[in-house]
Structure formats: structure tokens, C-alpha cells
Give the backbone structure.
Amino acid sequence: MGLDPDALLDRLQAHFPEAILQRAVARGEATALVRTGDLVAVATYCRDEGELRFDHLSDIAAVDWPRRPERFDVVYHLYSIPANHRLRLKVHAADGQPVPTVTAVWPAANWLEREVYDLMGVEFAGHPDLRRIMMWDDYPYFPLRKEFPTEGEPDEPADYHVSFPPGTERV
Amino acid sequence: MAKVPVAPMIDGLKVTFDNLFRPPTTIQFPEERRPEQARERGMPVLRSFPDTGECRCVACGLCEVVCPGHCLEVHAQPEGGDRRVRILEAYILDASHCLFCGYCAAACPVEAVVMSDIQDMAGFSRRNMIFDLQQLMELGRRFEPTYQATKGAVEFRLPDPDTESGRLLENKPLDLSEGPVERPTPVAVPVRSKSV
Amino acid sequence: MEWYYPFIVLAKVVIVLIGVSLAAYINVYFFRKELGRMQSRMGPNRVGPEGLLQSLADAVKMLIKEDTIPADSDRLLFKIGPALLIIPIFVAFAVVPFSNDWSFGQTVLHPVISNTNVGLLIVLALTSMGVYGVVMGGWASNNKYGMMGSLRASAQMISYEVTLGLSVIGVVMLAHSLNLGDIVEGQASGTFATWYIVRQFPAFIIFFAGIMAESARPPFDLPEAESELVAGYHVEYSGARFFIYQTAEWSAMLLWVCVAVILFFGGWLPPFGALSFIPGWLWFIAKCYALIFTIIWVGATWPRIRYDELMTLNWKVFLPIGIANFFIVAAWKTIAASLGVGV
Amino acid sequence: MATDLEQARQSIGGLSVESVTETGEGRRDMVVNMGPQHPSTHGVLRVVLDLQGENIVGTDVQIGYLHRGIEKLSEARTYTQVIPLTDRTDYTAAMTGNQGLCVAVERLMELEVPPRGRYIRTMIAELQRLASHLIWLGTHAMDIGAATVFLYCFRERERILDFFEAFSGARLTYSYYRVGGVAGDAPPGILQQIYEFTNYFVDRLAENEELLTGNDIWLARTQGVGIISAEEAVAIGLTGPSLRGSGLAYDIRKAEPYEAYADMDFEIPVFPDGDVFARYRVRIEEMKQSVRIIRQCIEHMPDGPVNVQDSRVTPPKREVAMTHMESMINHFMWNIHSFPTPKGEVYSAIESPKGELGYYIVSDGSNKPYRLRIRPPSFCNLQALPLLVRGQMIADVVACIGSIDIVLGEVDR
């Protein structure tokens, strides 16, 4: 492995004393909570800085915490192929508050951000092509939010699930 | 395609020509079948006691709880006013939602629901995929000989005999001095089964 | 001319029509069985003994299926497309001699409907017509895949017509005739050493590739490449019209194989004089099926070529070889004639 | 065939490929919807192609036809119940779907799988890699027109599925891995059979290679087609064999060894050309390396338990369940509540046959994941398709789709 998680976060915090709001290391994984406005700057630094070199954006995920004022975590998992270390960046976003896009830093973010937008409803400011990707274009809900019921919205077209009271004759 | 076709292409022809004289690997499905594997996970069926014909199910509802596809429904009624005695009223399997994961069979404490070798289910209606207690028991009776034959290997979730995972608390080892019972019977628990 | 002459011609026509249709179905069965075994499968084996009736069952199935015509298609062209493909191919069988002459006492029976002097030209001319059926069918179906398939088909068939025609010039020059029967007789010497495949091997390779491209067999099945264009020009066809397309394709392959056997494999001639007790038509059929076997074999083995590579292959490889072959044969004939040596 | 300019959507992964749709030489003649029903889009992928003749001037990849909301469903299920769902992501390599989840949960709970369990899991994962690559090879070759290879590959794959059936009881959706181990030890005699299979397999693989690797048509169809440079590949998020076909030796089995890969002696095949042929070679060589790993696993298979000896996650035995009141309560409690995980979050990546398969789990301390995110390799690899097909022909689109080895079940989840 490359840099150990603490050293990684130290380096990041040294360069962005303001933008890194929190840091944590758990199970060997480094996590940095980034101020939403500074995301692109931090991301660019992570990608370009000599020893970090996070050239590979593994994943973007969003986590919904409905009771928090800034209810969404948008989580970026970075990996450095040359240095072989990982880093998790997090930003908080309120409902309707756009997160700056990182497509200019890692083009791989294109579809990943689209998916987050589609399923969680987090908008990405400056994304070149922010369309729904999994659901159809005029779908009215964001299905991964916690308030969305697992069985689907009630006014959706009836699904195939049929309930059979005992004794129902089989057709 | 600047070059003229050369030797490697002829080698390829040789491979197909060789295969022309090898016996075919396909089997004629409905007549011939592959040898069945002991752990085969087909449709879940219900076993019953051969002597009385009663279903083994004790209506504990564990299978319903562990089912990831929510395809099982166990309906039980307290008998009379006695809430401790539950009677199996209906057992419904919606095979069109079944994932064939085998969790129900693994969880069943009395080996009532087991994974059979029934693989070829087809129907013209979704309702054909819904099986009730009587049908599941009938299928279970047909499967019973196979189950007895492959029982040891079907024991699917016992990775290691040394695992003392049966104990409830780590500091309170389980007393196994009685030894395993030969056949788990519903009498051992305060529930009893009754087929409807 | 005897009074019964028209009846004999009519009888020949009927026999050839039935025979060709039958052979097309036997070929389908043969194709499936061979492909199946090469692919470690069994091939058809359910309908009839050893699946022999599978082709018949398919034919019946296709004939009784609903025949759909897509909306907004050009209905007239859509309907006549299959006919335009199959008619020229069946007509071309009129000039193909299937055996040596049979004599019944004084009467000599030519096993060919029309023993014309320009047989080879007629074959080439009629098969060139077939491309219209493909283009019309693909274009009239108002389907993008169909249109691309028909565009590919037209470009491919027209291009390969050129090299195909060029490759047979050497044979024609050696045989001094365009009559297919005479071309076979030109190869007669008792052994296979005088067959034109020996003397005209490069021409045969070009011709073979050409007939595979003309009849759209893999690896040249671009007009209907199923992994790219779904089904190409006949993507919208179903039922009887699809059936006609399929029949036409198989008949075209049969026609080309017959012509190839006549041009390069000595037609009905036995490979050795000692084997001449076997009747000529048996030799002819055996050679045809050997060639069909090879075509299927190649198709089962090689991947599909890409469209631009197909064109490159034709225009940059086969065409120069064909032209060179033409000049070599011409030069050889001139030199031989000036030396007084027979060729 | 009127061109609908509204459909002129250029989704090209954020890289600056200039739009050539409406101007000058890049004029578009036709828009073709390739898919969702098309023989070679591997399921329900829809690619909207802007064509000029047969040349491609624009691509828009549309997915979502197989979206089943597995991430959402997981939030309502215990970790054990999620395992059968992961089968349904990449259904050509269901074992690695299981594995990814189990490795992630083990990391979350800081469990250590005993050696025999790790070896069996490694061996199964490599067998699964073989099976997955065989499907890829077969369909890829069939897309390019070599239908025979497809059947040969499925012939070999059937043998592997037989082994999987012996292990797990299923042929497609195995649900074989468990948190902390596997569902059952290897059935008797199976290891010997697998070892014999590897010998057979090497011969058959050589046969398939004879049909393709040297074949001029195959070379013409694959060499120089769908080129993507290493920089572009990393930027667009390619992983797995598709990335190694561009010359970067990134393999999680080496970079962050999990299971028993640290004990294994194997190589990472890398080919620098970045074209379809390079990706083909990578996967073919990878199959040979997988055979090596399988053999090593069998040769050095340790004895002992296959599951972690931890009553939190290991299911109780059924024999004892009916003997004792407390053990029966335990049996019911375990099956109803499964096991809770400590609070926290974890991202764990494994090398699936398609690439980096990551599971990001956020746990709130309960027995169900608060959020379970699957990082699907096929999804990220498919994103590169518009880059691969720029300036190519229709026939190359098919080759390119085949070469990145996508499974739509995983793309859409």
C-alpha cells in the first residue's frame, strides 16, 4: 500500500485547512469531509498532487439521512493506481442544494453523478449531461431516498404482485 | 486483410473438422437428464409424516421471516382459546417470486420445508405458480425417497462439526450430553401441526 | 424436330424445378446436421428419423405463418422482392447440365433444359439480376437494418460479380467455349489432372470466395449479419415471403456449386478412368456435396469479415490476381499456339 | 428516415470529443436504435447511433431497462438476505457478486475467514472467472461471427457449472458465499475432479485460441479497433481486463490482496495496445492464470473449518436446535434477526471478472444495511463505449461492446 491513511489526511488537511471539515480513519480507510464549495479544488489537488495521485475515481454514492438538515452525504471513493491507496471524500448537501460536479476532474464521474441524481435527487452543478439514467425521463420520484417505500409509490401502475387469501382457487 | 489467408486459418478448419467426429456434448433433455446433485435446490416442498400423513410443519413461521423474496405465507390459528397451540391453517408458496436460495429449508427447525429436485416448473398463468399446502405436501411425498437418499449432503449450512455455534451466550456452553435426537418431532416444542 | 420435343422439355423443367427445390431442403438439413456436429451438438433429430423431416416441418411452419407487411412500407416492392430474387436463380438452372448425355438407342437425351452456347454468360447475367430482389426487399421494408442490409448486399454482390466473371475467363479461354457442357468435356482426359482446378487454382480460389459472397454464406454473410444488422434485408419478412428468400438463398448456393463443379471439377467426369463405371450424375452430386460441405465448414470456422475488409479483399486482392491470371492464360495460349503445342 | 435533430445527444463521457453531428463532413445520415432488442447488445442495452453510411459519428448509450432497485431492496433485508440479491447483479458471475458483499461485511465486522474457507472461496472465484470469461469469449466471438466458438465455450462452461452445482445446489444463482465463510464445505471428491478439469480446460482453451488468435479475419476485426489509451481508460473509469488491455497492470488481487490471493503465485497479463484484440488477449491469458490459481488452491488446500468460528455470524446447527430450549431460541433469534453489524462504513473492492466490484456499506448498527451501494464494473466500463466506437463502423460497435464484457444485470442492478 501507498501512504497510510493518517498521513494521507494530514497532507490533505495541511493543504486545505479550511475545506476539510472532519477527518476519520476506520478499518484502515481514510475519510475526509469536505466543504461542499471546495470539492472541485480538493478533488483536483487529490488527482494532481505528486504523492496522492488519485487518478481513478472508483465510485460516487449518496447516502440519505432524512433527519439531518443537510440530508445527503455524497461520497467519493478515490483510488490511486500508481500509489495504491484509497481515500473517501464526503460532502454534505441539503435537499435541492447542488453539489459541484467533478466530471472535469474525472470524466468517469459522468454516469456516476447521473445515477446519484436519478436515484437520490442530488443535483450536480455544471454537469454536462444531467439526465436520468436508470429511470425514465419523466419519472417523478427519487427511489433511493428513505421516504420512498420499498414496494414503490402507491399511485404507480399496479405491479404483478398478487395477494392470495387462503383457499383461493388457483386459476 | 492485406495478407493472403495463411496457416492459422487452416488450423482453425482442423479444429472444427476434429469436432465433427467427437461425440456431441448435448443431451436430449426431457428424456435424458444430468445426474442430480445432492445439494440441488429446486422448488421448496413440504414433507409430511409417512405414517399419519400429517404435515411436519409446526407453523412457526420462520421460513416466512427468512425468505428474501417474501414468497412464503404461513397462516396459523390458535386452537380454541389456547394461544400456545398453533394450528397450521394454510401454507402458500408463490413460486414466481421464489429465489430458490434455500434459506427456508435451512431455517426450518423440523425439516418440514426442504428444497426438492423439481426444476421444471412452467405454467400459463402467474396463478399457476402459487402452491398451497396440499400441493406442496403432495410434491413433498413424491420427493421423500430422494430426500432420504441425499439427506446427508443436503445438510447445507453445517460447515464444520466442531463449531459450537449452537450456544446462545458465548460464556455459557451448551450442554450436549443428551446427544442429538434421532428424529426431531413436533412433540418437543409446545406447538403441534395439523393439516387442513 | 420430333413432335414430342416440347413435352420432353416440359418434363425436364418439372424435374429440375422439383429436384432443385428438393436439393435446397436436403441442403438445409445437411447444413444443420454438419454445423451441429462441428459445434459439438446433434443437429436436428426430432422430426422424423434422424430429423430428416425437419426442413419440411420448417417449410410448412413458414408457409402457414402470418405474413406481415410493415406499415409505411412500399407494399408492391415488398411483395415482389422475394420473387425477383428467386426467379432468376431458378431460370439459371435451365443451362446447367447435370450429367453426361444419356442415349436410349438412337435417341440421345441431354440432361440439360437448354443446351445453349452462352450458358455461362446466362448464369452470370441472371444471377446479377438477383440483387434487385434483395435491394427491393430491404428498401421496401422501411426498416433501417433492412436498408443497410440491402445496401451491403448490392455493393457486395456487384463487386463480387466482377471478380467472379474475371475468374472464369481463364477457364473459358482454356475450354474455348461458354457452353457449360463443352467446358466439362474440355477437362476430359481420364484423370483429374486436367480439371481446371489444377490448371486454374488461383482462379478457383477467387471463384470460391465469389460464390460464397454471392450466396451470402459466412464469413461473407454481411447482408444479413445477425449480430450487426439483426437479419439484414429480410428483417421484416415473415411467413411465405421469408420462406421464398430462404429458398432462394439455398438455391443460389446450389446453383453456384453446380457451376463451380462444372467449371473446375470436371462436372460428371470421374477422377480416374477406372472409376467411370459409376454414373456421371452420381459424380456430379458427390462433387456438389463435397463443395457444399466445404462451404459450411469454412462458415462454421471463420469469423465474419467486416464490410470494408470485404471490399478491400475483393478490389485489392482478388481483382489483381484475376487480371494477372487472365493475362497469364492469354500469354500461355499465345505462346503455345505459336509453338504449335495443344493446351 | 428523417433525422431527428432532437435526438442528437452526445454523451461521450465528458472527454472532449468534438460533436460532429450537424456540421460539414460529420453529417449524420441516419439514427439507428441498436437495442434494446438486438442480438448483440448482451441483454437490454440501447445504443443510439448516429450514422454516416456505416460510420459512426455519434453515440448515446441508454441503460436502465433492467433496473430492479437492488440497492433499495437491500435496505429492507438482513445481510444474509441480501446475498441472493447479489446473485442477480452480474448473473454470469454470481459467485463474485456474493463474494463482494461477503468480503465487505467481513471487513465491516472485522472477521477473519479461516484458511480453508479462504482457499475454497478463492478457488470458486477463479472458477467463476473462467466461467464468466468463457461466456464473454463465446458471445464476443459470436458477435464477430464465429458462432462455433460460442458453443465450444458453453460446453466448457457447463462443466464448471456442474462443479458449482455440486458446491451450492444451483447453476446460475448460487448464493454460496456466506458472511464469514461459505455455505458448505466442498463435497467429497470434487477437488480432484476440478483438478482434472483444469487439464481438460487448458486443451480446450488452446483449441479456441486456434480458432481465433491467429485467424487473419479475427485479427482484422479486432486489431486497431476500439482503441483507448491508458490515460483515457483510467479517466473514464475502466477497470479489470478492459483496463489491462490498455497497458495498466491494475488488479485488486495484487494491489489489495483479499481472500487467499496473497498466497498465490500468479501474474497479471497486460497488453499495451488498448484495442479489442489486446482486451481479448488479456482475458485469454487471464484464464490461464486462473487455472494456475485453481491448481494452487487445490494443491495447498488446508484442513479445518470453512466458516469463521464466531457465533455472531455463523448460523447455529439445526441438530442442536431441537434439543434444548435455549438453543432453539437461539436458532429462532439468529434466523429472524440475523446478525447486527457495528456502526460505520466500509468500501471494499474485489476483482470481479469484469473489473473492480466495490461494495460500499453504511451501517447504523442494525442487522440491515442502512445504505448498500454496489460499484458495478460493467456500469463504469460501459461508460467508455462512446470513446471506443468513435470513427468506427457498425460492425465494430458490436466488437467493442463485446470487448468490454458488460452484463446488463450489473449495469442496471
